[in-house]
Design brief:
About 65% of the residues lie in helices and about 0% in strands. It is mainly alpha-helical. It has a domain of about 130 residues: Hypothetical protein af1432, CATH 1.10.3210.10. Helix 2 packs antiparallel against helix 3. Bound molecules: 2'-deoxyguanosine-5'-diphosphate (DGI) and fe (iii) ion (FE) (2 copies). The site of one fe (iii) ion has 5 residues, from helix 2.
Length: about 190
């Protein structure tokens, strides 16, 4: 599937603001892919489809989670997490996109996970730093993303966890696993007492 076709599909599927976010994630993902030697076309396609299921109803997403035997844990956590794995499923089912790396980049773009591939990291980070984002601390993450993929990813996970803690929100285990997995390895420095 080429870029034009993919964009046409998601444009029909998403409200205007979400489509514009998607477009910016695509542009950001391409820049990051070039910078960190990730397949640009895969990054482009994963970014275009990353929020494909964002506007599906909770009931419909729940049905796919149950019918496709996805982790039942998802249903105990915030419904905001569901569009990522459901999106990966629908994109594989409805379009000829079979590359597991692309599908996993969509599947894990909200929570992250332990041992993410570079493509998964690029999509997670592009979603976090696209120019329309105004999260507290996003500027620091953008600066780190100029030079070090793991350090930027680590900072974005840390910010997200801190944000969720502050709001007394649950934190999905994969998000902690992604954080723990990066800490102290791959160039992320532990701060010891
Ligand atoms: O779909 P987007 O809005 O573009 O962004 P996203 O897919 O990263 O969704 C982010 C939302 O998910 C954000 O409001 C925080 C929320 N969220 C809820 N529980 C968790 C979580 N995010 C992570 N990483 N881990 C959680 O456990
Ligand atoms: Fe999303
Ligand atoms: Fe997004």
């Amino acid at each position: 599937m080429n870029k034009r076709e993919a964009l046409q599909i998601v444009k029909k599927q998403l409200p205007e603001a979400r489509y514009l976010h998607t477009y910016r994630v695509m542009e950001t993902a391409i820049i990051l892919a070039r910078r960190f030697n990730v397949n640009e076309k895969k990054a482009e396609l994963a970014a275009i489809f990353h929020d494909y299921a964002k506007n599906h109803s909770k009931d419909e997403m729940k049905k796919h989670i149950v019918d496709q035997n996805m982790s039942p844990l998802l249903l105990q956590f915030h419904p905001e997490l569901w569009h990522a794995p459901v999106g990966a499923f629908l994109v594989e089912q409805q379009f000829d996109i079979k590359d597991p790396n692309i599908l996993n980049a969509i599947r894990f773009h909200t929570t992250g996970r332990m041992n993410m591939t570079k493509l998964e990291k690029v999509i997670f980070l592009a979603d976090y730093i696209e120019p329309g984002r105004k999260f507290p601390g996003v500027k620091e993450v953008r600066a780190k993303a100029e030079v070090d993929l793991d350090k930027a990813l680590f900072q974005s996970l840390k910010n997200t966890i801190a944000f969720l803690l502050e709001k007394n929100q649950t934190i999905f285990p994969d998000t902690f696993k992604a954080y723990n997995g990066l800490l102290g390895i791959k160039g992320v420095d532990r701060v010891d007492e």
